[in-house]
TrEMBL record:
Domain Cyclin C-terminal: residue ranges: 201-329
Stored PANTHER family: CYCLIN
The entry's keywords: Cyclin
One Gene Ontology biological process: regulation of transcription by RNA polymerase II
Segments of this protein annotated with the region Disordered: 48-75, 366-410
Entries under Pfam families matching the protein: Cyclin_C_2 (PF16899)
Basic and acidic residues composition bias: residue spans: 370-384
Annotated protein name in UniProt: Cyclin-like protein
Length: 410
């Protein structure tokens, strides 16, 4: 199978690859569902509060003995209810992007110093979760530690929970985090990911491209590149280099070395925070990053690869995709480089604080309640199993007698 076929068989392509229109539609649908859920949750909370208030008022009235109600009300007999102001799709995206950037800083910085594949995977798991869930239901600050810890497991970078929590509490703004805070959202997170944790990054392709460019450099030092370069194996290229005369190409190699650091920085930041992983394959992201920094180099490389059919529809389609990906990465790099609008983020955060789903704020409590309910169900199932076993044993005992059990005298 080719690399392209392998990627198309992956869960990342099947479940997490979208068209731009589908991505916009999905986020709008998630926001609409969350808005309804939050408003209904607030209505239930108000109803419970009013019931408790009425109960306490009746108790106080009975204690006074004069029937006077102590509850405040409007002239219509009920308190005026103000509709909760929910987040828009754009505000949700700003909050998710902000915490994605925070996660990158936490994962790659002190005291964690995780490899970029671990931190990058955590960002992608985080972004995938918020395609089907809203920050109004689950605050990003609650999900972020769990996503980072889950990534250490899926990427095989073992980190004990105790050590992870100790390091997490050394990060400014994340103090007083407990092991329960990390583990409580984990099942919700894995459900939102559809229990698919595979994340394909362009990092391996970056190294492969760099090595292939060095081979091309060797070929250019030895001779002009052969016309059938794209069809040659590495062994055939090396044999061709040995037969040809030497020819220098320092500019090409300098371009490759200089571009490698710039491209890696783009892949480590803009590509992870943007929607590139939802819209493009890892190789398309890689070429888009190279085209952003070294357009002449990547054009030369692809011209060599597409030398047989440079004007074919598939070649033109490839260039269109690379151009679109490059524009996306360039836009995201400009946003990262710009000074963050703290006032706007602060406004959104305050708005989020007021419209968080009241039934899902305490994830630790919810997790404990679910475990208690599961324990009770397990006890009931165990009791049913014991009853079935006793009935079966009784039936088998009665069946031992050829003519059945003794008749009971009336």
């Amino acid at each position: 199978m080719t690399e392209d076929e392998l990627y198309r068989a992956s869960s990342q392509f099947r479940l997490w690859n979208f068209t731009p229109e589908k991505l916009v539609s999905l986020r709008s649908e998630t926001n609409a569902i969350a808005c309804r859920s939050v408003r209904e949750a607030f209505k239930r909370k108000r109803a419970r509060d009013q019931a408790l208030s009425a109960e306490s008022s009746n108790t106080a009235s009975d204690a006074d003995g004069n029937g006077v109600s102590h509850g405040a009300a409007t002239k219509n007999g009920a308190k005026e209810v103000k509709e909760v102001e929910v987040l828009t799709v754009e505000e949700e995206m700003k909050m998710v992007d902000f915490y994605c950037s925070n996660m990158l800083n936490v994962g790659t910085g002190e005291p964690f110093n995780f490899p970029i594949n671990v931190t990058g995977t955590s960002v992608q798991l985080f972004k995938r979760f918020y395609l089907s869930h809203s920050p109004m239901d689950y605050h990003p600050k609650q999900i972020m530690p769990s996503a980072l810890f889950l990534a250490t497991k899926t990427e095989g970078h073992h980190t004990a929970l105790k050590i992870f929590v100790e390091k997490l509490n050394q990060v400014p703004g994340l103090n007083k985090v407990t092991a329960e805070d990390v583990l409580a959202p984990e099942f919700i997170l894995t459900q939102g990911l559809r229990f698919c944790f595979d994340v394909r990054h362009p990092y391996r392709g970056l190294k492969g491209f760099y090595l292939e460019c060095r081979i091309m450099d060797q070929a250019m030092k030895a001779s002009n590149l052969p016309e059938n370069f794209s069809n040659q194996t590495e062994e055939e290229m090396r044999e061709n280099i040995k037969r040809e005369t030497k020819k220098t190409s320092q500019d090409f190699l300098a371009d490759v070395d200089h571009g490698y650091g710039l491209v890696r920085n783009t892949l480590n930041n803009a590509a992870l925070v943007s929607d590139a992983y939802f819209l493009y394959t890892p190789s398309q992201i890689l070429f888009g990053a190279w085209y952003l920094h070294k357009p002449a180099l990547i054009k030369y490389y692809l011209d060599m690869k597409l030398s047989q059919n440079p004007n074919s529809p598939s070649a033109q389609k490839l260039w269109d995709v690379i151009n679109d990906c490059t524009m996306l990465l360039e836009e995201k790099e400009a946003q990262i480089g710009a000074v963050a609008d703290r006032a706007q983020l602060s406004r959104i955060d305050k708005k989020l604080y007021k419209c968080r789903n009241p039934e899902k704020i305490d994830l630790v409590g919810l997790n404990k309640a679910q475990k208690r309910d599961a324990g009770k169900e397990g006890q009931l199932d165990e009791q049913k199993a014991k009853k079935r076993k006793m009935a079966r044993e009784k039936s088998e005992k009665e069946g031992d007698d050829l003519f059945g059990p003794d008749l009971v005298k009336p």
